[in-house]
Amino acid sequence: MAIAQKLAEIFGVEDINDLPISYEIDRHKQKAVIVLLALLYLGVKKIRLGPTLPAFLSPNVIQVLVDNFDIKPISTVKVDREAILAGR
Fold it and tell me: Could you tell me the CATH number of the domain that includes residue 64?
């Protein structure tokens, strides 16, 4: 995160979410929930989570994450790569 904050400073953007950085979190990895919570706490948005959203998230919680943090489920490599390169 310190690197992203320094890059924002160097490139003169006020919000790290304006940097062309993509975060993809594989929920099957250890500590993925901790990493996700840390990124959300720091205000990071546009995080891709997958390959499927965790079963312990209720539809209401998922909607809050999508609405407030722009969480996106991971799709296919091709679809995700195109979306990331297009800034979506």
Answer: 3.40.50.2030
